[in-house]
Amino acid sequence: MTKTATLVPRHAGTAGPLTSLAGLLCEWLPRQRWFAGKDRPLTELNLLSMTELFPGCLHVLVEAGDCYQLLLGTRERPVPHLAHALIGRAQQGPLAGLTIYDALHDPRSARFLLERLRHPGTAGPLRFEADPAVRVPSGLAPRLLETEQSNSSLVYGDAFILKVFRRVQPGVNPDLEVPGALAAQGCGRVPAPVAWFRTAYPMGATLGVLQPYLPNARDGWALALRALAAGDDFTAASHELGEAMAEVHLALASAFPRGRHDDGARTAAAMAERLTAAARAVPALRPHVPGLRSAFDALGTCDPGPAAQRVHGDLHLGQVLRTGGEWFVTDFEGEPSRPLAERRAPRSPVRDIAGMLRSFDYAARQRRPWSPKWAHRCREAFCAGYAGRAGWDPRAEPALLRAHETDRAVYEVLYEARHRPDWLPVPMAAIERLAVRGG
Ligand SMILES: Nc1ncnc2c1ncn2[C@@H]1O[C@H](COP(=O)(O)OP(=O)(O)O)[C@@H](O)[C@H]1O
Ligand SMILES: O=P(O)(O)O[C@H]1O[C@H](CO)[C@@H](O[C@H]2O[C@H](CO)[C@@H](O)[C@H](O)[C@H]2O)[C@H](O)[C@H]1O
């Protein structure tokens, strides 16, 4: 399928005139939801690699603060049905005269990409691999998910979903590593990878993962909002979610080496450091810093809870899917802004529990007037479900839970300030509450 694979050596593509590829990308990248460097104008980027994946589709890695993966469709003439995916028309450089699109929006390119995954092999520095035990049929119709995402996902015939990582870091991506390891443990709560692709240049890194698609699934966020709007109880679902998370934590603890019990003082110092960095970026946090710090300091004296282990790392209601009366857990990438080594390190499982508890609060705050009792009931049910399976009750050590919830709320403040400033009041309300209680 792949005819040629051209690796363009590291090459400084300064923005300059907006009609070069680099110039077009400097305009286009900051408009993408998954682009992290929105805080300042993008004036320069480096083209790290460019590989022809198939005729009319280039695989590109660019350095623009971080390394980003792009699939660029090139056409001789504008294509009206791809107008929404237009990057622009290059007037200089190797692509001069071509109209360039985000190829993931183009069904033709998306079909070719699936073909590549169905046939393991290489294309320049790219390597396509697959689980030989799973048969992926050809000709499945692609559709690009339009949900708010940190990456881009293509669904093929409602049978498989391909996540194309946008921000690429060296090393194996946990979203390939963890589901693979959990499948080997027989954990049925996480869809197992069936094919994936990586690059060897300019670093060894995972680029995308194909998994079975869970048909007719609704994510926990949509289900929680629906329950809230209808005045329905969500405690039974929350209880089952707690059980499911405990199962996933147990499987993670068997699949990966465990760490020691968290050293409270060290964890508190790391949390305080994240708070300092967040307060530097978000002035609204600054008055609360002393109160929030005292929530962390309590870690020095409270029970450390369960030993550190691999965790999900960015758990919230949007990461869990329900279908056939069961919960499934997705997206093991961790917090996208953190370095990969940190995301792969053993952490306290309380981190995940805190993430989900914060998510009940986020959901409750979508209703007017907001519904703290609803969130409280969900928290209790989730913790009870977790305790029943894991043998450890997250409510046993309130200071531990509060410190992790505070750390998570600080992350959320930074996340919202960068990506969705309109949402900032949601984690800020929690910050105000946690700072007072912590103080
Ligand atoms: N195996 C799956 N089956 C069905 N839907 C899925 C599956 N995996 C992910 N999704 C959905 O795809 C969307 C994006 O997935 P996610 O892993 O959260 O991406 P990102 O890391 O880019 O935010 C979410 O709406 C999620 O619910
Ligand atoms: O893109 P990801 O799913 O990997 O996660 C990032 O985006 C999430 C929002 O889409 C963000 O989650 C926050 O908002 C949710 C509601 O939209 C809420 O349920 C979560 O509790 C809250 O943290 C997540 O933090 C971020 O990493």
Automatic annotation (TrEMBL):
Keyword Membrane: no
Listed GO MF terms: ATP binding; kinase activity
Protein's UniProt name: Maltokinase
Gene Ontology biological-process annotations: glycogen biosynthetic process
Domain Maltokinase N-terminal cap, first and last residues per copy: 28-106
Keywords: ATP-binding, Carbohydrate metabolism, Glycogen biosynthesis, Glycogen metabolism, Kinase, Nucleotide-binding, Transferase
Reaction equation(s) it catalyzes: D-maltose + ATP = alpha-maltose 1-phosphate + ADP + H(+)
UniProt record similarity statement: Belongs to the aminoglycoside phosphotransferase family.
Pathway note: Glycan biosynthesis; glycogen biosynthesis
